[in-house]
Structures are given as structure tokens and as C-alpha cells.
Design goal:
alpha/beta, 40% helix, Aminopeptidase, 573 residues, 20 strands, globular, seven-stranded mixed β-sheet
Amino acid sequence: MVEHLVARFLRSVDTARTMDDLRRIAGFDRYQASLGLERAARVVAGAAVDAGLQNVAVHGYQADGKAQWWTFEAPVSWTPLSATLRVVGAGGPVVELDHGIHPFAVATYSASTPGGGVTVPLVRRGGDLDGALVVVDRDEYRDGALLAELDAGGALGFVTDATNKGDERGRVELPTTSRLLAFSLTPAEFARVADLRDATARVEVSVDRTAGMPVVSGVLPGDGDGEVWLTAHLCHPRPSANDNASGVAALLGAARALAAVPGRRAAVRFFWGPEFVGTASILHRRLAVEGGPPPMAVINLDMVGEDQALCASPFVVERSPDTLPSLLTPLAERVVHEAFAATADSPGTWQSSPFLGFSDHALFVDPSVGSPAVQFCHPADRFNHSAADTIDKVSPVELTRATAAAAALAHLVASGGPGPDELGRVLDWWCEREVARAEEVAAAQGGEWGRRLRGHVERGNARLRALAAGVDPDRTTAEDDEPPVRAAWDGPLNLRAMIAHLPEASRHALGSLIAADKHCLAVLFNLAIRADGRTGRSAIIEDTSLALGRPLDGVVAGRLFDALEESGWVVRA
């Protein structure tokens, strides 16, 4: 059944039309609350109606930076109407940038310049900052005190190549309340200004702050109760073709394919909005305002069209966490497996990942929501968050795989899943792979941790088999000599707000850990969602280690847990 269903959706996906949707979306500057995002939302809404979705709406929210959805703050309205930079040295112009021509050139949340622009001196950090544009190298950019120093010194702003991806300019972001402006340079441009003396810069930035925050929704009704949700974030500067115009277009393609297939019990609901905050707004509306139930399952598409040969990133199925035992994960991996098997004449590989929580699916797996959620993604894309994330980096075949797999998975779940025999075969395939992988990792790690990993995988497999048999899975935990800890936040976990609750010194220390290894955020998230009021600190750290499939550095894990407790978001029960 699964193989034939995936093949059916692969045949029905209109790849050319999906690529056309992607190109249209990639043409907009899609900052989280901007005129470009509003225009993109209207385009998506029109395409959703054409795809056959019902009750299509563009929900508007005030972009005022205030907490509107539990601890989640609305974005601040910001649209760069124009942004230009012209650096002149003794021999004439050395750098000329126009954001209208050079995507990612102006930093997000840059302040406007007065009048029609200003001419200011170009200086290094140790010079007179007052009214100047400061040249900031990579090491200086990482200094947590940089922005405060520039602000206190009266600087107009800075230029840097610190976020570049190879030869391309990367994304620079400023605080929403910053009075500074900034421009992102390529390494070649930075080399031309790094050692200039007595140079000047002509800078003009004009910003609109009238736009709101849009979220687009639509639904394919079902014959019974419950809903499956499909989500894809709509934001990021242009072109951001893979991140995430690809996910937006794939959802439209899945909607068209699903609309032609009847017989669903549950409804399938689609959402497009700014990352995290858009999802927080729709969840808050559903749970806190309408008092409705959460979705029965969620499929999030974030960066799904990558040409693997160019982007150097395989297709990844990020699993729902083991804190929410669900058949969604093995079904997701099976449909992706079948999609790649059916298109094996085109290059590309796929793999699975434990839950990490770097995108919108993270909000649903919070204990306060409790919806199993998986993500399709290419997280290692080497062009991510740079001006090089262009249409030529998108593979039509990969986009079709993602679109068909998402549609097939949504249809499977909304239709009650495969029959018992088919489900049994899927679970046999999945559990065998889990055991083999655990044996490989345990053999590499050795010792007691490897033995515990084998036991962890065996228990996880048993829980899924129990679910398939219609039996509540065993969730008993071993006796724990430590006092249990519980979650103490409101709504879905919001790590940004949690970090903001820390004292300044602790916040900077945690920021340094995360800057050194972004996966500290994934560990932090996994630690927090295990604070169930029954388990102690050491057991939570151990469970997180086993869930992530790797031993954790005890010192780092301890410091991360300390931050959760110091913030007050995790407390002793």
C-alpha cells in the first residue's frame, strides 16, 4: 500500500507548476513582518485556492514586538525600501552596493539614515566611532560586547563579511530596537575596505514600518474528526530559494495532489507564515482562543528542494521525539524511502535524524501541546542563510520527492494509516534498522553507555509495536534517587524567551556555548521537554543522550541544565 501510494503521488505532482510557485515566492524579500511577506502571503493564498483548498484565509497580526502568544513575541515591522552603500578611497569607489540588486546586503533591522543619506568616515574599531561606519572583522563580530560598544560610541553602523558562506554574502541580523545599521560584504569586498585609510562611505537606508505579520491557512476537509497539519515557514530575505521557498511550494504541490484523492477521515490543514512566531500564533488561536484540540500529527517542510550535489546535504527526516511515542516517525521514513527508491535513477540519498527542534515542528512536541511532529529538511545545506541560496541550487526531482512524500504521509495518517499487515511490515523494517544502527553506535562507543543504548532502542521499538496493536505503550521510568523536575513555562517551549530570563552573565555564558556548537540548542530543547515532574536531572541528561544517539559531554550538559533551572523554566517538583 505505501509503495503504491507514494508512486501515485509521485505521478500526480506537477513539478513544473511547483517550480513556478517556488520562483514566484523567491522573488520577494520575506522578512518576518514586511511588505514583501504580505505580498508573498497573498500569492500563496491565491495559489492555495487554485490548488483546491477551502476556507483559505490570510490572518493578520500586529507586528509590535510584544508577547502575544504565550511567551512568543510578535516580530517587529521592518521593510527595507532602499539600502545603498558606496565606499570611496583615495583612488575612487572600492565598494558599491544596492540591496535592490545585491540580496542580503543590508542587515535585518538596520535603522534608517536621515534624509537622503549621509556621508561618513570609514574607520576600524579602535578609531573615533562617533558618526562613523566601522569595519568589523570576523573575530570582532563574535564579540558579544560589539554592538553595545558601537552604540555607546555613537557609530552609524558597521560593515562585515563575518557571516559569509564561501564567496557569497551571508545574513547579518541586528536587534529589533537597534539604532545601528549594517551591511554584509563578500570576502572580496571586505578585502578592499579592510585596510583603507581616510576613506568615506555614502550610506542611505530607508525603512517602512507599516506591515503586519501574515499567516496563510487553508484546509481539505475530512469525513470524520481530527486534523493533520502541514506547515512551511514563508519568511527569509530573497531569494532563499531552498530556505524556504522550496517548503512553501512543496506544500502547494501537496495540496494540489491531495485535493484529487478522496476518502480521508481527518482533515488536512495547511499553514504558511513566519518561522516560529507564525506557528505560535496559529497554535495559540487553536488552543487558547478557540479551545480546540491540537492536531493529531504535524508534517513540517523546511528546506526540501536542495540539489544534493551542489548543496552537499542529504534529505533528512527529523523524527518526532521519543517523549511522544508515535507511528508517525516510521511511516514518515517509509514514505521517504519509497520516494527515493522510485526515483533512484536520479542522484540523492536520505537519512534520519533524532529530534533537534530547529524549526516550527518543535512547538508541537512540547508537552503542553503533545502532537507528534516530523520534519523533512536538508539541514547541512552549505548555502543556507546566504545570497547563494538561489534557484539554480534547487533540484526539481528532490522537490518532487519531498512533495509526494509529504502528501502520501498526510494521506496515510488522515486515512487511519495502513492496514495491520502493512503496518507490521513497516514496523519490522523500521525496528530492524533501529537495532542495526544501535549495534553500530554501541560498538563504536563501547562500555556501559553502549549497553544502555541497546536497551533504549529495544524499549522504543516495543512502544511502537504496542501502539500498532492498539495498546498504550509502557511509559514507566526507573526509580530515581534525585528529586524530579518539572516544566514551568507557559505554552510551547520558547528557548529565546527562556534565555532572555537568565541573568546577563549566565546569558552570555550560554551564548558562548551555543556559538561554539549550535547543537547545544538541540540538547537544551531535549532536556527541557523531558522535565515531566517524575524524572530527576541525571536521568533526564541520560535519556537525552540516548535519544540523540551519542554520549554528551557531562560538563556541557550540566551547564545547559543549570541554565534551565536558573531561568526558572525548569523547577524541582
